[in-house]
Amino acid sequence: MDVVIQNTPTQVGYYSVSTKPLFITINNQSGNSADVTIKTQKEEVFAINGESVISYQDINLNLFKIDSDWKIDSAQWVK
């Protein structure tokens, strides 16, 4: 039993990322397609030390419309 406990890796803790949209800019829309940029706020939480880091990042989306629904064709984070 002691060998099993000694060989068990140490828990590294909890990590999570939450992203929420702040505002959306429609760059181009024609017919059944659109290009938009979303300004986002990202929160990363590190549970080992309870630290939280807030950052902001844009994401560009290419959308297309099927019937009355808009679908995401591609997404690219802006560095």
Give the averaged pLDDT, no decimals. 87
In terms of DSSP E residues, the strand content is over 45%
Shape: elongated
Q: Count of DSSP helices?
A: 1
- State the secondary-structure class: mainly beta
| Low-confidence spans | none
Biggest sheet details: 4 strands, antiparallel
Residues in helix, %: under 10%
How far apart lie the N and C ends? Answer: 49 Å
Q: Roughly how many Å is the radius of gyration?
A: 20 Å
The side-by-side strand order for the widest beta sheet comes to 1-2-3-4
* Record field, number of beta strands: 4
Comma- or semicolon-separated keywords:
single chain; 79 residues; mainly beta; 4-stranded antiparallel β-sheet; 70% strand; elongated
Structure description:
- The protein has about 80 residues and is mainly β.
- The protein is built from one helix and four strands, in the order αββββ.
- The chain starts with a helix and ends with a strand.
- The model has no long low-confidence stretch (mean pLDDT about 85).
Kindly summarize this structure in a few lines:
With 79 residues, this protein is mainly β. Helices cover 8% and strands 70% of the residues.
Q: Secondary structure elements and their pairing?
A:
Layout: H1 2-7, E1 15-30, E2 33-46, E3 51-66, E4 69-77
Antiparallel strand pairs: 1-2, 2-3, 3-4
